[in-house]
């Protein structure tokens, strides 16, 4: 029974609840800031661009400087993000992530660790959201509302090198619901 | 302040000297318990500080994509050149880039005629000294062909006899003998438990051409993300960049259960100490019923008597804590300990001293409380007849 003589009975649960709520807040989405909001407004599309092709197809066909619309899932590594920048890796959507496979309890299913690196490489691309000057936007991609294994459609220019790597210099991206 | 007249401070202290044998034994027992607490806390602090000091925020490690640890990593030999040509944000001085190609492995090392122990070996070039800015050669010189530079704690890591990695001695690993050309210190970091040898020699001995990792130093104003972006764009190289501080923070997380276990040991030791204190103070109180009753007839309250008993316990425990602290600082501080990740020195720093002495005081106070309460409960008339 709660009485005025037992103030700790009130204080202790309140303190525990406060600590728990602090912990919950820490695992939530990062606070939006002005730069992130600006980047969202200019680069996150409200409608899906037409003519999207999978990463593997674009890797086969696109040449350096081509305009491309690529669809892929965010992942391909345990840490697909580039810290503090609007850049990340995407994987061919037909590839199965660890969470798409039965009996796989991988903690980081977006790293596609069930596929060999050679296989994965053929269906991977790097996306860099760039500004008008072509520089990577200095806002962490997660602050644009992106998360691992989301399917994104990216519109931009292909940057190819002699080793077959594909980087998409993105002017806009759309997150498939 | 206390709302009662306490017994004179000297009374409690003199009582300890009235039972010299019992007090000395209790002092020794408590000192031993507190010393063990110092050793365990020194272990935790040593492990933490070794890993804290090991990461340089400007150093980036490039290794194989997805490698669980650096020993399993394998990057192609031309990676350092590629990075030097491709990355603008690498520190340079006098035309030399701060890029250190390295082979890193844990292997059997025989030293000083003892049975081979697990040692940590790093094949390096002189560029390692540019990137590992904390490394200082404290004796001898940089290793030439067939020679090795031994870290200050390499001997402890190998578990060999004293002087096993002294300058001029031979150590054997990877099917070869290597003469120790010098010894190095690295500000207490994990590097100190390693043996460094020329990269080419180690590659020849191991019949491998690849590297384990490339360590580089970022130029002022450069960002880790520049290197990370390069590695993520060059998918064909299968490289991954890890900030050195993140690498050692990962090791800290890896050893978290060990640290928790060590703190649990501190708790158990403190508990054992409390029981030792209880036992002694019950012994000290037993048979003093008449004394306590007489004090009360002189006008001292029960609380004053109880406080005096607690004072005896706390004074004894404080003396034990101070004795243990002196022994710990003299004998335990800096002692090398072998561990899976290498070796590190036990560290009796301010925090360890505070915890050790705090536990000592706590043992004295808590251990004396029940006997003090018992002394309070005895009626005066009964006590005088005891």
What order do the helices and strands come in, and which of them pair?
The complex is a heterodimer of chains A (177) and B (386).
Chain A: H1 7-26, H2 34-43, E1 53-54, H3 55-61, E2 67-74, E3 87-91, H4 117-121, E4 124-129, E5 151-160, E6 166-175
Parallel strand pairs in A: 1-2, 4-6
Antiparallel strand pairs in A: 2-3, 2-5, 3-4, 5-6
Chain B: H1 9-18, H2 20-54, E1 59-64, H3 79-86, E2 92-93, E3 96-97, E4 99-111, E5 117-124, H4 128-131, E6 136-140, E7 147-151, H5 154-158, E8 170-173, E9 176-185, E10 194-198, H6 199-206, E11 213-217, H7 224-233, E12 239-243, H8 244-254, H9 256-285, H10 289-297, H11 302-332, E13 336-339, E14 342-345, H12 350-377, H13 380-385
Parallel strand pairs in B: 5-10, 7-9
Antiparallel strand pairs in B: 1-11, 1-12, 2-3, 4-5, 4-8, 4-11, 6-9, 7-10, 8-9, 13-14
Overview of the structural elements:
The complex is a heterodimer of chains A (177) and B (386). Chain A has helices at residues 7-26, 34-43, 55-61, 117-121, and strands spanning 53-54, 67-74, 87-91, 124-129, 151-160, 166-175. Chain A has 177 residues and is an alpha/beta fold. Chain B has helices at 9-18, 20-54, 79-86, 128-131, 154-158, 199-206, 224-233, 244-254, 256-285, 289-297, 302-332, 350-377, 380-385; strands at residues 59-64, 92-93, 96-97, 99-111, 117-124, 136-140, 147-151, 170-173, 176-185, 194-198, 213-217, 239-243, 336-339, 342-345. Chain B has 13 helices and 14 strands. In chain B, a hairpin with a 2-residue loop joins strand 13 and strand 14 (342-345). The A-B interface holds A 77-78, 82-85, 87, 89, 111, 113, 117, 121, 124, 126, 128, 136, 161, 163-165, 167 and B 65-66, 223-225, 228-229, 232-236, 238, 240.
């Amino acid at each position: 029974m709660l009485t005025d003589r037992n103030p700790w009975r009130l204080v202790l649960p309140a303190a525990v609840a406060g600590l728990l709520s602090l912990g919950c807040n820490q695992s939530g989405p990062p606070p939006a800031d002005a730069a992130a909001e600006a980047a969202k407004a200019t680069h996150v599309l409200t409608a899906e661009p037409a003519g999207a092709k999978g990463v593997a197809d674009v890797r086969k066909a696109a040449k350096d400087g081509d305009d491309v619309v690529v669809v892929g899932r965010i992942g391909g590594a345990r840490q697909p993000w580039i810290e503090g920048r609007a850049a990340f890796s995407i994987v061919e959507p037909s590839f199965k992530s660890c969470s798409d496979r039965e009996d796989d309890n991988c903690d980081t299913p977006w790293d596609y660790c069930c596929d060999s690196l050679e296989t994965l490489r053929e269906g991977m691309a790097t996306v860099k959201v760039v500004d008008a000057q072509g520089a990577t936007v200095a806002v962490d991609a997660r602050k644009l509302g992106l998360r691992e294994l989301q399917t994104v459609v990216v519109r931009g220019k292909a940057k190819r090198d002699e080793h077959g790597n594909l980087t998409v210099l993105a002017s806009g991206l759309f997150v498939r619901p | 302040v206390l709302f009662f007249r306490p017994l004179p401070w000297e009374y409690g202290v003199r009582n300890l000297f009235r039972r010299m044998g019992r007090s000395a034994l209790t002092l020794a027992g408590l000192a031993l318990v507190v010393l063990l607490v110092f050793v365990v806390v020194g272990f935790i602090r040593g492990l933490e500080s070794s890993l804290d000091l090991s990461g340089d925020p400007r150093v980036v490690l490039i290794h194989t994509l997805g490698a669980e640890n650096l020993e399993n990593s394998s990057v192609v030999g031309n990676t350092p050149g590629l990075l030097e040509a491709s990355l603008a944000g690498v520190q340079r001085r006098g035309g030399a880039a701060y890029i250190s190609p390295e082979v890193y492995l844990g292997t059997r090392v025989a030293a000083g005629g003892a049975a081979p122990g697990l040692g940590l070996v790093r094949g390096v070039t002189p560029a390692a000294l540019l990137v590992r800015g904390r490394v200082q050669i404290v004796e001898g010189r940089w290793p030439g062909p067939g020679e090795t530079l031994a870290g200050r704690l390499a001997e402890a890591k190998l578990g060999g006899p004293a002087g096993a990695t002294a300058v001029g001695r031979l150590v054997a690993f990877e099917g070869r003998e290597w003469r120790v050309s010098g010894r190095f210190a690295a500000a207490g970091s994990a590097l100190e438990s390693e043996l460094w040898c020329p990269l080419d020699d180690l590659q020849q001995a191991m019949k491998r051409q690849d590297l384990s990792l490339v360590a580089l130093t970022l130029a002022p104003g450069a960002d880790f993300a520049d290197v990370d972006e390069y590695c993520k764009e060059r998918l064909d190289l299968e490289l991954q960049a890890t900030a050195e501080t993140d690498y050692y923070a990962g090791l800290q997380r890896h050893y978290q259960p060990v640290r928790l276990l060590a703190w649990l040991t501190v708790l158990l030791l403190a508990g054992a100490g409390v029981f030792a204190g209880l036992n002694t103070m019950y012994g000290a109180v037993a048979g003093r019923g008449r004394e306590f009753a007489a004090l009360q007839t002189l006008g001292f309250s029960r609380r004053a008597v109880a406080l005096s008993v607690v004072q005896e316990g706390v004074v004894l425990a404080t003396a034990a804590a101070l004795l243990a602290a002196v022994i710990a600082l003299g004998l335990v501080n800096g002692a090398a300990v072998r561990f899976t990740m290498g070796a590190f020195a036990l560290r009796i720093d301010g925090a360890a001293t505070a915890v050790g002495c705090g536990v000592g005081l706590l043992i004295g106070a808590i251990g004396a409380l029940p006997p003090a309460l018992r002394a309070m409960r005895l009626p005066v008339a009964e006590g005088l007849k005891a």
